[in-house]
Structures are given as structure tokens and as C-alpha cells.
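Target protein
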Amino acid sequence: MAQNTITNLSWIFIFVLSIFIGCQDPIIVGNDLLDEERLNIGVTDTFDLSSYTISGERVVTHRPGIDSRTYLLGNLNDNVFGKISAEIYLKCQLSTSTPNYHLEQLIKYDSLVLVLAYDSTATYARSIAAQKVEVFQLNQTFSELDTFYSDTNLTFGSPAIGEVTTVIRPKDSISIVDHVTRKIVKQGPQLRIRFNETFGKALLDNENAAKNDTAFAELFKGVYIKSTSLDNTPFLYGFNFSDDARNTTNSVNKLIMYYNVSSGDTTLRKTYEYLINAATINRYVHDRTGSQVENFILNPSFGDSLTFLQSMGGVKSVIKFNDLNKISERLINKAELDIYVADLPDQNGFYPPPPQLLASRKNSSGTLALIPDIVQLINSNVNFEPVFGGSLNSTAQIKKYTLNITNHIKSALKDNTYNSDLYIGILTESETPHRAVLYGAGHSQYPMKLKITYTKN
């Protein structure tokens, strides 16, 4: 028993020692405890890597049956990544009970207000900013049963049917006057957009639109929402359109019809609340003209020093492993990829890097697919982040990601048709407003580095 304990401790000591030495040649271990056994453990990190930046692909922003939470609005504009605009298409529907305002005799329109619940975790570039938010009526309808991508382009009419100019404060509650009780009530963080009287009255006066969703959708197909800065301040913010945030009894998200009914000498104040339909779409428009990112995409060799990441279908970083064959005779124990965040002036303070990265590869059909290290964990219903890594590790000096790509490297060594090029992206990029500048594979101080621990066959 003592002999086995000593042997186990020796194994642990040797393994840890080899990690820190980090040399290319294997460590030959032999002593009287192991007799004729010879354990060859080595660590190498001298691989030839190359990196570059590519344009991202459109991302799904509505998929039937998937409960998405965050939908983004606003604009970013700087000389590094260029311009991006986040816009929203949404539509409303009747509540579980249809309105009865069309049955009233002496009815007077008051107002029609779209109320949207902020997602307090979704601000980017600034925490608050002055914005002009405009709402336009769609000319075409769309279905929650269809899948929509970030390049969806629906037609809409002009001018706007509603707008508001305000300071967006996604973490601050507001106070409003309750239409029925006339009391001041405090409510959670929300954006309120009043529609114009012409549109509001037309909806109130349309008897058919009050009877069923089909007639309602024919009159009101949906809206297109955009938000622009009043002073060119870059700012993205988000709304919580999860199922719970739209459908619960006290949900904030709704379109509210306010109206009054005369009854003798009194006036009854009433409301009807339309629901926000599940078919909400984010549209992302990128314009990289004249930006650093455009220059790096057009000149892949520049990726030796820097590469770029941007969610919302922006850009991805590609990493190539040029000499994996030099360890083809080794038994791979672990393969880790280190990626360092570039510390550029005026970037990380306003534009924090993403908290979690993903890694994909191109499969035999040429489409991107998650690498085996992630897929196997997901298929086993295991949270992949603790095993795969890819989360941001920050110290006072550096910000770094470490990715466990062991199975990816093993697959590349086993199958010469397996594409080992790694495509680095951002977790939940369709609803996460993050970006990063990364040091490239040839950077003089913080290069991307593949570190492999192996046992010689």
C-alpha cells in the first residue's frame, strides 16, 4: 500500500513539474520505484500558428420555440470596427380576452403607448445616453413560426407613427400617472413610446381588429424600431423579450390603449393591453468602410499582429495550426490554446471584451460547427464552460482566454481530412453586444499559443 502511494505521488509530481518546464523534448523518468517502466511526458508550445480576421456570418435572431431574452437597439461608430446599427422588428397581438371598446357608445380616445422592458444587463459602450427612438408601421407581416436572421429587411411606411426623445436609463425605475386611478405609481425600468393620434384612433375605431388576431394583424402588421444618438455617442442597449417578460400577468412589455367612456355625469377611464408577439427580430447592419477591421480583413497577413472579434454577426478570428504533424507520433494528453486581449487606448474601458468565447471549425460541407470539445459536453448535458474554458481571465496586467481544444487536436491528428482551422466566436452572439481586439499569432509579446502535454508512444 505504501509502495502504491509513493508511486502515485511521484506521478503527480512529475506531471506538474513537466507543465512548468514547458520544454519541447520529453522528460525521461525512471527510478527504482518504476523498475522497467519508462514514463515519457513532455510539454511543447513552439507550434507555428497563423491568424487573421474574417467577416462574420448572419446570426439567427428568432427561432420558433426558442425563448430568447435580449434584443438590442442603438448604434456604435468608431474607427476600429466601423459602424453597427441594431434595429428591431416586433408585432403585437390581442390578449387572451378581446377588447370591448368597440361596444362602447360614448368613447373618447386618450392615447396608445408602446411599453418595452429594458434588459439592464445589455448596455454597451455607455451606461446611459440620450436617444431618439422612432417607430414605423410595417408594410408586411411575418410569422413566429418562421426563422429569421440578422439580415432580415422588412419594408415599412413613413413617417413614424411614434417617437420619443429621452435619456435611456436601463437600470432606473420610473413613475407614471395611472390612467384609471390617477395616482402616481412606480414601475420598473422601461421605455414608453406614445403613438400618434391618427394611428391610435384608427385602431380604436376599427371594429374588426378588436374581434380576432387575423383582422388585427391585417390592420397592424407590426413595427420597425430604430434608435439614434442625439450627440453621436456610441450606445447599445437592450430589452427583455423573454417569454416570461412578455406573457406573465404583470409583464411590462405591452401596447396599451388608453380611452375614456362617458356614463351619465361621470367619465370612466379604461385601458386595454395588447401583448407583444413571440416573433421579435433583431436586425444588425454593419458598415466597416474605412475602419481598421476592414483593413485587416482585406489584408489577412496583418492578422499576425492583431485579430478582431465582434458579436451580432460582426467578425471572427481564424487560427491555423501549421505544423501539427510534428507531434503525430505523440499521445496527446491535453491541448490548450491561449489568446490574449490587446490593450488598445480608449477601447477596453468603453468596450469590454466578451466574457465567454466559442470555438468552431468547418465541417465537410463547409459550414461552421462547434468543435468536438464543446459538442461532446453539450450532448452529455454538461456545462461546457468549466471544462472547455474560454472564459475571460483578467489580472492587472493582462486579459487572457484559455481554450481546452484537446479533442479538436486529436481529431486533426487522427484524420487528415479533418479541418483543424479554428474559428473563434462569442457565446450567444445574436444577443450579446461584445467585441474584442486580440493579439495575433505572431505578436512579439503576447502571441496566441498552443500548448500540448503529451506522452511519447
The longest helix spans residues 2-21. The chain is about 15% helix and 40% strand. The CA atoms of residues 173 and 189 lie 4 Å apart.
